[in-house]
């Protein structure tokens, strides 16, 4: 059955990257139905948590440059927040940033508190501190995705220079190997396509040529997947590429197909697929509020935001947690503050989910549900 043939309410094959299919898990669908019917949830199901805005790398193309090095939760407050989430209906927390989440000195205890409460954990990291928290990451975290964006030390140091003034690429690869040997969850190698251009628009630096080599390194390390992402501008819009650059990537991707198997998957982000097909960088939306904003939220030291795309955007700020509890903040949050028709014109990974939830509003009959397989909706 193709996607076009799939009737509304029919779950897809269980897939951790199938954001729409995740809506039809037995324990998730009741909350989705509440949102589809226009009611607020007592708690979001998923929280993107930025423990800190500090980072030990100095990446020139950092999409979070506007919020970097602007503070962090105190040790006491982040532990209180972890306990507040543990006592709530939150089912999954993604440690992310903002900055580098593992730089917060209390992060090990935060992981222990959330894991002990049965909350599933994910981590997006630059990988420099994997070795410091190897036990926690191997035993308590459902998945770790490392932002690598290169296959060699030389290219890595161009796009992801360390503030230490020495390359951290060999250390990260070594620590990923150690984690791969011990992990109970999944380990991913993330590759963001990047180019730099001069004043005349000529490409001066690129990592496009290392896609295949990076995928092969990911498998050799012991990663569970290799994920390819498109380059974005400062406002999160995709940047369409010259045909020869797209062809270079796709040729390498095809070659990587020979090493994909049940233990190692190749994943392409929705925004790269849009670039690959030459789609308009503007993604039109016809709904005035984001249903997913009721199901998941983004918590940072400088405020709680409607989603990571709007991190630091005053219009997308739902509240803050400096003088209020997580429960109080959420009760008073206005998750309709952002209008996707005008405020989210970039390609959003949750757009298909929002369309699906909107269609559910018109559905009155039963739907077919699937057993739970992934709370990271």
TrEMBL record:
Coiled coil: none
InterPro entries, per database record: Aldolase_TIM (IPR013785), Radical_SAM_PqqE_MftC-like (IPR050377), rSAM (IPR007197), rSAM_sf (IPR058240)
Gene3D superfamilies registered for this protein in UniProt: Aldolase class I
Domain Radical SAM core: 41-279
Keywords (A to Z) from UniProt: Iron, Iron-sulfur, Metal-binding, S-adenosyl-L-methionine
Protein's UniProt name: Radical SAM protein
């Amino acid at each position: 059955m193709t996607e076009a043939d799939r009737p509304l309410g029919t779950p897809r094959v269980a897939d951790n990257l199938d954001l729409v299919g995740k809506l039809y898990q037995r324990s998730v669908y009741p909350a989705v139905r509440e949102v589809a019917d226009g009611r607020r949830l007592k708690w979001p199901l998923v929280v993107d948590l930025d423990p800190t805005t500090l980072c030990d790398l100095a990446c020139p193309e950092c999409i979070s440059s506007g919020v970097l090095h602007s503070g962090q939760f105190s040790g006491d407050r982040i532990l209180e927040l972890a306990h507040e989430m543990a006592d709530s209906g939150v089912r999954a927390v993604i440690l992310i940033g903002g900055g580098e989440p593992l730089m917060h000195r209390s992060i090990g205890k935060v992981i222990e508190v959330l894991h002990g409460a049965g909350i599933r954990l994910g981590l997006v990291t630059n990988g420099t501190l994997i070795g410091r928290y190897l036990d926690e990451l191997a035993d308590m975290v459902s998945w770790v995705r490392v932002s690598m964006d290169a296959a060699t030390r030389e290219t890595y140091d161009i796009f992801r220079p360390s503030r230490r003034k020495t390359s951290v690429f060999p250390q990260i690869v070594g620590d990923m190997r150690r984690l791969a040997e011990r992990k109970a969850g999944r380990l991913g190698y993330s590759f963001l396509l990047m180019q730099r251009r001069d004043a005349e628009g000529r490409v001066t630096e690129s990592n496009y040529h290392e896609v295949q080599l990076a995928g092969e390194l990911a498998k050799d390390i012991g990663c569970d997947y290799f994920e390819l992402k498109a380059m974005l501008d400062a406002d999160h819009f995709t940047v369409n590429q010259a045909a020869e650059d797209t062809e270079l990537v796709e040729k390498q991707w095809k070659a990587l197909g020979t090493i994909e198997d049940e233990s190692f998957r190749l994943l392409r982000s929705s925004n790269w697929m849009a670039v690959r097909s030459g789609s308009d960088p503007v993604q039109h939306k016809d709904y005035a509020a984001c249903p997913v904003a009721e199901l998941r939220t983004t918590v940072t030291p400088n405020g709680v935001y409607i989603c990571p795309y709007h991190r630091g955007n005053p219009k997308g700020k739902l509240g803050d947690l400096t003088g209020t509890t997580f429960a109080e903040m959420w009760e008073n949050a206005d998750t309709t503050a952002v209008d996707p028709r005008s405020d989210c014109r970039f390609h959003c990974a949750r757009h298909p989910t929002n369309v699906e939830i909107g269609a559910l509003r018109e559905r009155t009959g039963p739907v077919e549900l699937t057993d739970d397989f992934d709370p990271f909706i």
